[in-house]
Design goal:
GO terms for molecular function: 3-deoxy-manno-octulosonate cytidylyltransferase activity. Keywords: Lipopolysaccharide biosynthesis, Nucleotidyltransferase, Transferase. The chain is an alpha/beta fold. It folds into two domains: 1-102, Spore Coat Polysaccharide Biosynthesis Protein SpsA, Chain A, CATH 3.90.550; 120-228, Spore Coat Polysaccharide Biosynthesis Protein SpsA, Chain A. The protein contains eight helices and nine strands. The chain has helices at residues 30-38, 53-61, 76-84, 104-118, 188-195, 201-206, 211-215, 235-248, and strands at residues 5-10, 45-50, 66-68, 92-95, 126-132, 146-149, 157-163, 178-186, 220-224. Helix 3 (76-84) crosses helix 5 (188-195). The radius of gyration is 17 Å and the shape is globular.
């Protein structure tokens, strides 16, 4: 029986922190932390999809399966699709390489949830996660994506919209938005369709590739979890991660 496949896209040329996948002030490259977290997801295969020989060498050095992909691919999802092509998998999960503290239980919840939705009469094209807005996090920060959903039914809801802006705008009362967690699950067929679809106008405008699915009339399943660990976008983010890691080890 086919197993879930977790693919970790690891691009070298990050705009805000170039080469961040190889930063190793903890004694391990950043990508290794993400890989080892994903290995804790029971019953899933894990591979790294990269565009750079140094990341490939590092990944092989710590025993990961790694697939080289075209550096010109414009998104992590396209990199995931290229790496997963031709492989047998029940579903494919996209877990970004700059998530060294990703919660394995969140990945498991996404896998189980999406597999369940695929058995329904109206399966979504993909599924993702959300959590309550964390205390102390500025909702005006465009790097943290907000979303609104339908009401939860049977443990899952459907996404209505994602945005980098405050969503919804609290015009009449105080409101804490939901925070999107950038993990995605696709069926292999859904992933192939999505990868072959041109980014929509909204996706380009907000720089949020999942909006292509909504603008094309597809649905996105959303599962709520308690929270998410911070990703690494800047040098300050990385320094904070190193501090947490050293405190625990």
């Amino acid at each position: 029986m086919a197993k879930p496949l977790i693919v970790i896209p690891a691009r070298y040329g990050s705009e805000r922190l170039k080469g961040k996948m190889l930063l190793a002030e903890t004694g391990k490259p950043l990508i290794q932390h993400t890989y080892e977290a994903c290995l804790k997801v029971e019953g899933a295969d894990v591979l790294i999809a990269t565009d750079h020989e140094e990341i490939e060498a590092a990944a092989k050095g710590f025993g990961a399966e790694v697939v080289m992909t075209d550096p010109a691919l414009p998104s992590g999802t396209l990199r995931v699709a290229a790496a997963a092509k031709g492989r047998e998998a029940s579903i494919v999960v996209n877990c970004q390489g700059d998530e060294p503290e990703v919660v394995p239980g969140n990945i498991s919840a996404l896998i189980e949830g999406h597999l369940g939705l695929l058995q329904g009469s109206r399966p979504p094209l993909l599924s993702t996660l959300a959590c309550p807005w964390p205390d102390g996090l500025d909702p005006l920060n465009p790097n943290t994506v907000k979303l609104i959903t339908t009401r939860i039914e049977g443990g899952a809801s459907r996404a209505l919209y994602f945005s980098r802006s405050v969503l919804p705008f609290p015009r009449t009362r105080d409101h804490r938005p939901l925070m999107h967690i950038g993990l995605y699950a696709f069926s292999p067929e859904g992933l192939a369709w999505f990868a072959a679809t041109e980014p929509s106008s909204l996706a380009v405008t907000e720089s949020l590739e999942q909006l292509t699915a909504l603008e094309m009339g597809e649905s996105i399943g959303v599962f709520m979890v308690e929270g998410a660990a911070p990703g690494i976008d800047t040098k300050e983010d990385y320094d904070a991660f190193v501090g947490r890691y050293r405190a625990e080890h």
